[in-house]
TrEMBL record:
PANTHER family: OXOGLUTARATE/IRON-DEPENDENT DIOXYGENASE. The lineage of its organism: Eukaryota, Viridiplantae, Streptophyta, Embryophyta, Tracheophyta. The keyword Oxidoreductase applies. This is Fe2OG dioxygenase domain-containing protein. It comes from Acacia crassicarpa. It comes from the Eukaryota. PROSITE patterns: FE2OG_OXY. Residues 223-330 form the Fe2OG dioxygenase domain. One of its GO terms (molecular function) is metal ion binding. Pfam families: 2OG-FeII_Oxy, DIOX_N.
Length: 377
């Protein structure tokens, strides 16, 4: 028996096992394990495939200046160069930084501060101040994608909820944490600003990819019905970063993700370079810049002109790290149609909610396979 993992704080999770039976499981709260100063990594967090944790540091993370892309603000040539940078980054890795995005630093700091405050609360208070999400996939305060009793767990505590469209009061869900009291206000301000940026990027990406109709992606989004889910990820210091992973490899099912991080900025997030199958660490990420991640729905919409980023998060020994991910998707019932391809089409039309349901059904996976759902065989 692993006495050092004994912990009175648990996340409770339910899932359907391979035979379709409902299982309930208790999962240790990683933040509490770290608070107790655990010296050994409990077996449930050990990865057998940890030899692949080696990585290259990515020195020159492309950073696209959105102020330059805003029409009329710069010469045509400077703007064309910035567009080319955007296309390059989207095509090669599916992630890029954005600077001069127009979101005031105080709004960004405001969102990061309420998240830090939330995680500083004692476990019982955190648990008491968030709603219950038992009927929604991978939502709420807890762990990611737990699907079996013997699956290796991620070294993470996370809180996921839908920010827009707003959840009505009479629904069973209470999505916003009640503490700190300004959590909702600060996060809504950030989400509102980020939405403007993501809409701008959808148009800029179409232009950068030389698609004639610059609204070909944005047209699927709706001012009220489009979804923005917020996932707050907290990675406490880990006794064995060589054996555990913070967030298992994955692509995001949405169209675009915008990320900001806090705590350690030196390392954590990695993205797979498809050209040579090496993991690149995103280490130079200034606090005022946001990281954009191309998601699966965008890969489908673009008919594979760009691919969603396959990414993961490593843990660190003595430092904590956190991130806020905003996942942007068209309304669930939207049928998205891939842009016309010169050669034979590679992606099929899909209804957003069908794709997302499939994604959650098969996740977590070691390879990028959920996307095959929308590929022409
Ligand atoms: O923590 C990070 O930087 C990445 C988080 C992430 O990939 C996600 O929440 O989907
Ligand atoms: Fe992600």
């Amino acid at each position: 028996m692993e006495t050092d993992t004994e912990n009175s704080c648990y996340h409770q999770t339910s899932f359907l096992d391979e035979k379709g039976s409902l299982k309930t499981m208790k999962i240790p709260v990683v933040q509490e394990l770290a608070r107790q100063g655990l010296k050994h990594l409990p077996d449930r967090f050990k990865r057998l495939d940890s030899t692949t944790f080696s990585h290259q540091v990515f020195e020159e993370m492309p950073s696209v200046n959105l102020a330059i892309l805003k029409e009329g603000s710069k010469s045509m040539m400077v703007r064309a160069e910035e567009l080319a940078k955007l296309a390059d980054a989207a095509r090669s890795l599916g992630v890029f930084l954005i600077k001069d995005h127009g979101i005031p630093l105080e709004v960004l700091d405001g969102a990061r501060d309420v998240v830090k405050c939330f995680f500083e609360l004692p476990f019982s208070e955190k648990k008491a101040c968030v709603g219950t999400y038992s009927d929604m996939d991978n939502m709420g305060y807890g762990q990611n994608y737990v699907k079996s009793e013997d699956q290796a767990l991620d070294w993470i505590d996370r809180l996921t909820f839908r920010a827009v469209p707003p959840v009505e009061d009479d629904e069973r869900l209470r999505v916003w944490p009640l503490k700190p009291t300004n959590f909702r206000e600060a996060m809504q301000r950030y989400v509102g600003e980020a939405r403007v940026v993501m809409n701008f990027l959808l148009v800029a990406l179409a232009e950068a990819l030389m698609i004639e109709n610059h609204h070909v992606f944005l047209k699927y989004f709706h001012p009220i019905e489009s979804e923005i889910k917020v996932r707050v990820n907290y990675y406490p210091p880990c006794p064995r970063p060589d054996l555990a992973i913070g967030l298992n490899q994955h692509s995001d099912p949405c169209a675009l993700t915008i990320l900001t991080q806090f705590g350690s900025t030196q390392q954590g997030l990695q993205v797979l370079n498809n050209k040579n199958q090496t993991w690149l660490t995103i280490s130079s990420w200034p606090q005022d810049q946001l990281l954009v991640v191309i998601g699966d729905l965008f890969e489908i919409m673009s008919n594979g002109l760009v691919h969603s980023a396959w990414h993961r998060v490593l843990t660190q020994k003595d430092v904590e790290r956190g991130s806020i991910a905003l996942f942007y998707s068209p309304p669930p019932t939207t049928r998205i149609e891939p842009v016309a391809a010169e050669e034979e089409e590679t992606y099929k039309k899909v209804v957003v909610e069908d794709y997302v349901r499939h994604y959650y059904k098969v996740s977590p996976t070691m390879e990028k396979i959920a996307i095959n759902f929308s590929k022409v065989n």
